[in-house]
Amino acid sequence: MKTRKVAMDYDDVIADLDSFGKYQRRVFLLISLPCMFTGFGAPATSFILGDHQHRCKIPFYDNDTYEVQSKVHLAAINETIPMNSDGTYSSCTVLINGTEEKCSEWVYDRSRFIRTVTSDFNLVCDSLYLRSHLKITYLVGFLVASMFSQIGDVYGRRIVMLVLCTLRVAVVFAIPFSINPAMFGILRFFEGLTSLAFYQMSFVTAIELVGPSERLFTANLSKALYCLGEFLLILLAYFERDWVYLTLWLAIPTVPPLIYWLPGLIPESPRWLTSRGKTEEATKILQKIAKVNKVEKKFDADKIKREEDQGIKVILKELLHSRILMTRLFIVIANWFVAAFIYYGLTMNVGSLGGNLYENFSLLVVVELIGYCVIFFMNKTGRKPLHLLAIFGCGIASVGSILLILFAENTLYWLHIAVSLISRFGISVLFAVLYVYTGELFPTVIRSIVMGTVSIGARIGALISPYLYDVYEESQKRIH
User: Fold this and answer.
1) Averaged in consecutive runs of 10 residues, what is the pLDDT profile of the chain (480 residues)?
2) 3-class DSSP state for residue 446?
3) DSSP result, 206-234
4) Euclidean distance between CA atoms 379 and 373, whole angstroms
5) Which residues are CB-contacts of 6 (< 8 A; sequence separation ≥ 6)?
6) Residues 461 and 139: beta-carbon distance below 8 Å
7) CB within 8 A of 379, min separation 6: which ones?
8) Residue 6: what pLDDT?
């Protein structure tokens, strides 16, 4: 009499293997540490494309600098550089024979930054819009990565991850040698694409190796590591104020993941192999996990239940024919759009808060880390109360920030920073809740397409955010 194979859920197999045993911890460590350095990309914009203080260069004054050198130099500045109504020097015009004209050369303040992309390519005054464009190139890469990363479902997690980490190394080491804004922007686009896609592939690989009860922990630990990466960025940016050398330092941590090419170091996802019918390869990996975790049990991937591929038509029909699901989808997209808009608006324009840039950035990262930690209480508080508290708290703080800009632009810096910290805390909690809440609001059959859709909505929100401050800054200069 033949023995009938009993189909098992993949999660049950992982549980039998020890859902977070020695093997999973080792792989998670190997994957997580490089992911920590993906926290460099978007926040680095504040330092390499920062708001570099400047004024027009005095005509025929060869050794002109932003810093006042002497009384003679100060007299030359006062004679040739117009004054704004607030007592500051004009940053875009110069007096020539008593006529105020636009200038084509500038000198830059070297107290905060020694050298930036802004100063190297003179992305100021009439070229300010180019700086805004360059800011979003990294985020455009994020947008494409949100769609590109789905290729891992076709070709496998491991090979896509390996190709991405290799391309990423080539791109980030080329950035410091950019000879014009176009080259810099293209390279930043590919940096954003490879960084996020690599992070997503790594995240999926780690998640598919652990049990359901450990996924909340591993997901939020990755966010904590992201914050640690931001702290490291601040440290590097504080001691290295030249964007060329800073980007070279930031490129170095992308090299170690190349060891992933070593056979057997990072496995292919057994879940993916099983779903593709590659049960022999999946069985070998499962048996290796059992051996490392010291589980004395034989595992056969043939016994794992394969998830039925519903097909894109069935998935879309399930979504589009349900008014409740479509309403939920629009609400969730709006939430993701707002969360990304505020998060990246604060991240990329932290220099506009006043006070010390490095201290302000550090404070934002601290409250972001605290915000991510709040999610560990979500099972006690529930999803909805935490979600509402986060979004309304962030909204009130953001309105307060707008009022301060309108009525106390150059004063009450401490209050500007305080409301920004509240906004950052609220938006960090909101992000953490949305990752979990979004998946739970929709049936399994449409969950993947929903997560892809809301991710695109978030990237669009992120793309818009860098422009607003530059538009406001330009309007203020015209008023003055």
Assistant:
1) 57 78 86 77 85 87 87 88 82 85 90 91 88 88 76 80 92 94 94 87 81 74 82 90 94 91 87 81 85 78 60 62 80 88 79 74 87 76 80 83 68 76 86 77 66 81 75 54
2) helix
3) HHTTS-HHHHHHHHHHHHHHHHHHHHHHH
4) 13
5) 303
6) no
7) none
8) 54
HEC string of 290-326 equals HHHCCCCCCCCHHHECCCCCCCHHHHHHHHHCCHHHH
Contact 303, 16 (CB under 8 A): no
pTM: 0.83
Give the whole-angstrom CA distance, residue 452 versus residue 465: 21
Question: Could you give the CA distance from residue 376 to residue 174 in angstroms, rounded to a whole number?
Answer: 40
Closest C-alpha to 145, from 192, 183, 188? 192
How many other C-beta atoms can be found within 10 angstroms of the C-beta atom of residue 184? 24
Q: In the prediction, which pLDDT does 345 show?
A: 79
Contact 148, 199 (CB under 8 A): no
Cα separation of the two ends of the chain:
92
Sign of CA dihedral 232, 237, 243, 245: negative
Q: Which three-class secondary structure state does DSSP give residue 21? A: coil
**Integer Rg of the chain from CA:** 26
Please report how the helices 181-207 and 157-174 are oriented relative to each other, as an axis angle in degrees rounded to 10: 150
Residue type, 169: V
Mapping DSSP to helix (H, G, I), strand (E, B) and coil, where does residue 112 land? coil
CA 414 to chain centre: 26
Quickly count helices (H) and strands (E) in the chain. 20, 4
Residues sharing a CB contact under 8 Å with residue 380, sequence separation 6 or more, in sequence order? none
* pLDDT computed for residue 2 by the predictor: 45
For residue 112, give every residue at least 6 positions away whose Cβ sits within 8 Å of its Cβ, in sequence order, or none: 50, 52, 53, 241, 357
